[in-house]
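Hey, weird one. I pasted the Ribose import ATP-binding protein RbsA sequence into the form twice and got a warning about non-standard characters only the second time. First submission, copied straight from the form history:
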Amino acid sequence: MSSMRATPVLELADVQKAFGAVIALRSGTISVDAGSIHALVGENGAGKSTLVKIVAGLYQRDGGIFRLKGEDVDFTSTAQSKAAGIAVIYQEPTLFPDLSVTENIFMGRQPTGRLGRIDRKSMRHEVERLFTRLGVAIDPDRPAEGLSIADQQVIEIAKAVSLDATLLIMDEPTAALSGVEVERLFTIARSLRDEGRALIFISHRFDEVFALCDTITVMRDGAYIATSPISETSVDQIVRQMVGREVTELYPKQETTVGEPLLEVEGLTSPGVFHDISFTVRAGEIVGLAGLVGAGRSEVARAVFGVDGYRDGTVRVSGKTIGRSRPVDAMRAGIALVPEDRRKQGLVVESGVGHNITLAIRKQLAKFGLLTTGMENRAAKEWASRLEVKTHALDTVAATLSGGNQQKVVLAKWLATQPKVLIIDEPTRGIDVGTKSEVHRLISQLAGEGMGILMISSELPEVLGMADRVLVMREGRITAEIARSEATSENVMFAATHASEQLK
């Protein structure tokens, strides 16, 4: 006897959306069942966000089918979408910082007791019950301000559960989380699935997609490409579908001749942050700095560049010692730092692309103290085209660019200073697979031209695929140095999680 397939919680078929002449969604198609976690993947610009915004009631579709539990729906507001049982958990939630955790969860629907007063006791009791059910320990009375992004997401999930949402959409939820926080989020996601809810998980991280989801839908250029059970597909197959071409070379590392030492760091110590850090980066070499979040990798990079101070040790570039706590000295010596958080530390998001690219070389460009937009744009154009920044004009505001293109603009800004040593922190965080291989190709090319590169990355495949040597940090110390030919995910992870005594 054939069993009837249950009605999907969400069903979109050939949904279209255009903004003027720009087609954001040609054919958005996805079917999500109750009790399942469905991955939605695609490069930046594939149409994932537009599709989510239609489901969330932010946009209205121009055509196609949109059904919820078998009923045709059409939301004209986010309130309608929420009322229908849909919750979207964004990468960086926006809570009210001055209100308590409990008040945030019950915002706009506080229960009232006799005389119409807000029943704070029952609100708090309900929040405690929710947190117990989700297996998290957050104080219901604390203000939302200062909470980690991971805890803010949990609060949004608790809010969704208290509203009895049947469909939760998680949009890049793990981008800013540590390993432990990701694991907690996954535990919560699985328990929601086991309760019979439907979840959509959007991510660029394939290891997470394959660990968490049971079904995967791929989009490309605003159109639906394919849906497969996770058990019947592979990362290679998904990448091919996303990019529409073979990405045989996600890590296009070219062989280079390693030259003389460019950056020498000796005995760098900052009490409580890192201890006795010594390493060398030579011309034409990519040195990978691996380790778990919180191992002290970014702090070392910031100290070398002079952003943060340190107590002991020396930093030399081409044999010359540079002063501590002075980024201007580091830049003059030929060091460039591309920081991890590009929006906050690397870009002036309200300014144009051209202005951003020339930020670090404005003094050299100015003639008699004058700098015109034309002069800026001429200098910026070379780097924008070399890095294939996808923008129609150099006056395009940086905030409107995709994550991958923002990363390229920050890279262009520092490469315009023509550095000897490039320190790049999380070079491909939050960018899609096609742009990833472009950034990797560029890093490899720069090493081929004789630049020394120190690459900090939390993505093991990236470290193993790009680095000539891998330095591993754990709790503020370097616990291993591994040659490219000997580096494996196992020995890098071992060094990142075990004390150095055990590595002898």
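That's the output from the first submission. The warning seems to come from a hidden character in my clipboard, not from the data itself. Residues 343-418 form one domain.
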